[in-house]
């Protein structure tokens, strides 16, 4: 079975990150760093894709307005993270947004911004050592803004916002601790989600938007 390009991009992203931190760890004969417990903050770069119902094969409409559901190309962006670690686990709040080009037979090419708030739990397989792999599971609360993708009975073209989003994240990653307080990390996770509203109007059948997200970032523990 042939893997799609998005999945391969994400795999390559994580493999490169793993290679870098593994090469760095060779320089350390003693590997006894233990991550500091407590609150941490960080900044991240992410690469994201949005699939499922966003394939340019459907539209939503009311008696007065038509809302396009275009295809979104892969996108990237930045965000931040706030978390708290205790021994081999951490709870983490994060926000990021990614910019995407869109294609549509109905409305033509445009741009979209995917925003998401995540609440995740990380479980670390080891609490000592510079290199610490982990699994990740949590909840996602997204919303999506698309430019010039709707029109009404008067012929006016407008933007649209998908809200009422909810989803599930599941994946894993690696953290590399330079010191007890400073670390870099890389994650890849699968997100399954859906939107329930368009411009505040309920969508009868929720729109799915599953996809892979890969992230890399740096954190500091207080």
Helices and strands, with pairings:
Blueprint: H1 5-25, E1 38-48, E2 58-61, E3 65-69, E4 71-72, E5 75-86, E6 89-103, E7 110-124, E8 131-152, E9 157-163, E10 166-177, E11 182-198, E12 201-208, E13 211-221
Antiparallel strand pairs: 1-5, 1-13, 2-3, 3-8, 4-6, 5-6, 6-7, 7-8, 8-9, 8-10, 9-11, 10-11, 11-12, 11-13
Explain what you see.
- By secondary structure, the chain is mainly beta.
- It has one domain (5-221): Beta Barrel (Porin), CATH 2.40.160.20.
- The chain has one helix and 13 strands.
- The chain has one helix spanning 5-25, and strands spanning 38-48, 58-61, 65-69, 71-72, 75-86, 89-103, 110-124, 131-152, 157-163, 166-177, 182-198, 201-208, 211-221.
- Strands 1, 2, 3, 4, 5, 6, 7, 8, 9, 10, 11, 12 and 13 form a 13-stranded antiparallel beta sheet that branches.
- The radius of gyration is 20 Å and the shape is elongated.
- It starts with a helix and ends with a strand.
Structure in a nutshell:
The chain has one domain (5-221): Porin (Beta Barrel). It contains 1 helix and 13 strands, in the order αβββββββββββββ.
């Amino acid at each position: 079975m042939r893997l799609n390009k998005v999945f391969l991009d994400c795999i390559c992203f994580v493999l490169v990150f793993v290679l870098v931190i593994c090469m760095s760890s060779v320089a350390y004969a003693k590997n006894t760093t233990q991550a500091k417990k407590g609150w941490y903050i960080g900044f991240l770069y992410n690469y994201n894709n949005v699939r499922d119902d966003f394939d340019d094969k459907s539209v939503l409409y009311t008696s007065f307005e038509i809302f396009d559901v275009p295809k979104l190309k892969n996108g990237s962006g930045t965000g931040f993270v706030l978390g708290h670690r205790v021994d081999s686990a951490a709870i983490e709040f994060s926000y990021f947004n990614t910019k995407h080009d869109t294609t549509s037979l109905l409305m033509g090419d445009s741009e979209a911004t995917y925003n998401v708030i995540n609440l995740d739990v990380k479980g670390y397989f080891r609490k000592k050592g510079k290199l610490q792999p982990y699994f990740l599971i949590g909840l996602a609360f997204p919303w999506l803004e698309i430019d010039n993708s709707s029109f009404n009975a008067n012929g006016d073209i407008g933007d649209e916002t998908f809200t009422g989003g909810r989803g599930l994240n599941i994946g894993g990653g690696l953290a590399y601790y330079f010191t007890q307080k400073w670390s870099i990390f890389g994650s890849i996770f699968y997100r399954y989600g859906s939107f329930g509203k368009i411009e505040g109007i309920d969508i009868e059948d929720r729109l799915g938007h599953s996809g892979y997200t890969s992230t890399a970032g740096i954190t500091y523990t207080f």
